[in-house]
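Help wanted!
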Amino acid sequence: MSEAMISVEGLGKRYLLHRHRAHDRLLSASMIRMASRAIRPKADPDADAEIHWALKDVSFEVNQGEAMGIIGRNGAGKSTLLKIISRLTRPTEGRVITRGRIGSMLEVGVGFNPELTGRENVMLSGVILGIQRSEIRKKFDDIVEFSGIRPFIDVPVKRYSSGMRIRLAFAVMVMLEPEILLIDEVLSVGDAEFKRRSSDRMQELIRSGRTVLFVSHSRQTVEQLCDRAMELDRGHLVRIGATSRVVDHYAAMSLDPNAQHNAYAAFEPETDKPMSIREVAVLTSSGNCSGEIEMADPLRVRIGYDINEDIENVHVFCRLETAEGVTVLASGDADYDPANLGLRRRGSYNAEFQIEGGLLEAGSYRLSLSLGVPYESTIDRRPGVVQFSIVDRSSRRSAWYPQTRPGLIGREYPWIYEGKSPFA
Amino acid sequence: MTTVDTNQAQDEAAPTSTSDGAAEGVPVIGLDRRFERVIEQSNDSIPARLREAVVWRDLLLMLVQRDIKVRYRQTMFGIVWAILVPLMSLGVYWVVFERLLHRAGSGGLPYPLFLFPAMIIWNYYSSSVGRAANALKHDAPILSKVYFPRLLLPISNITSPLVDFAFGLGILVIILALYQYAPSVNVLLLPACLILAIVAAAGMGFGLSVLNAHYRDVHHFLPVLLQLWFFCSPILYSTTDLVPERFRLLYAVNPMVTVCEGARSCLLGTEIQITLGMGLVSCASAVTMFIVGLVTFMKLEQTVTDVI
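Answered by r_m:
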């Protein structure tokens, strides 16, 4: 028998989506259904229901001390999975075996009552989360300290700002110290300072040998906190393994579910517009358009556009974004040479710029393009049309550090020791 | 679940170092067979879930505290309402029945004295059932986010109205003093009546709370049910005054018949208006309600988060 802390075996959860939802919850409607079932026993009892599998055939194991990230689009079944493991809902098929006390952090502020004071809510919410009263009393000062709202602890929570409420709720929640921790995207609360402290505390919890299942949309958080990750898609487990591998793949997929990489895009000519984008490509220095670019190599962005009538004071503008939507770089064809804002003649043109090798960190990126008058109007726009990855197979550190680094800039800097060096 | 197991760790194996660790709040990390749990479609057994509810008694206490605090906080008179409300409704009945309709209580008792004992225990019953019926719906946001034995929610709702009942008893003492009426030793039987009321309220509360989560009909039909029930119980009248003898056993199927008559007789020391047979019928009926309610709750509870 397996000794995993969490074993999930062939798990499935089915929901019936009734077409006549409003009536369905009425007793009378249920009785009519039951009666009709009795009269025509062969009729499909759920004939008027659409079946939806929120989870299907999901199997995996999480070992002791392991932090497992769960990623996937909305409706992929991530929350359903956590709900089943935390016993909020029953699976339709399969089973889960857990071997430890479970603490769920599915929402900040569970059980908070606005009429009660901060102090009373700490007790109530803590007990609801499954902490003993005696233990909460012992940790009470720590909780208040962590939340940073000591002067207001005896004020009813309804007088709190939403930030204060969340801080207090979070402070209670992170005092939970079970062997198995289920977390659903609760890290990003409060101001920057509190975020840092809560994320530190989370890491501390995770690193202290606890077994963690962690649902998140944020690739960075998953990469930071999890050893392994899995991707769910429409209820199925599509990928499981080392975090960086799963996360990279997900980031690339999440741009366009039907395409892996799409380093080239072409568009129908739009002659009703004064100018329009015709094609975009991301190329390696040798002109290869596979969508995978070696980190050390330069990256060429090639844009083809048509001018349908003479026009002036416009520019071609390109934004480079990470898969999460953070803009890394924005560049227009008149940035470097303002003369380019002058008159442009009718015709088809190709322009290109090059980003030097070694600058961008490995990861998934996309390009957005626009044509227009700077600060005034947009004539044509193609957001996120091209996706590509920068991969690191040649940097010095890749020789000994096989994982992806966080960050946007991937340049390697030499470190200089002044005077004595620790290396023999 | 965490509390469950921490509790077990503390209760069952106190001398070992493991449980010392747990008691000190130091997380005990590692594989522990005690905490192994299989989650499947089939339900855990009812006794297992009842045991679990017992282990979570900390939460029951907190829920009851919350109920009471929240109810009276932010009102101008606060807890005084617990005294004011029964007094005011007693006043209404007194005006209508004694002043306007010139009715006296059975056996020549002043009407307020006759009415009040049955009224406070009925009030306990109806507010318990009413609150418990809404318990799961009311706390749906908690139910969908964290696991604990759901049974604690209706239980807390049939526990907290006991506070109002205690206040009612206090008022009764004052009324007795005003009418210079001394209770007899029968008063020692009052807990038996109260327990019967609690058992019946629990049965109704369990059943209705989980039905209410699944079917919104309950919400509409409950006030009517309780009103009808009020008139079918000997509160405004006494059993012997109104109910023909041959129907009395059937009448006693309503456990509140024995509860109300019993409370009146206990608190006022008057002769009991029901027979032993009726009392037994009421008890059997209350126990049946309890079992049916509990089983209904246990059966439907596990799908509550899917529909609520």
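OP: Thanks! One thing I noticed: Confidence is low (pLDDT under 50) at residues 1-31 of chain B.
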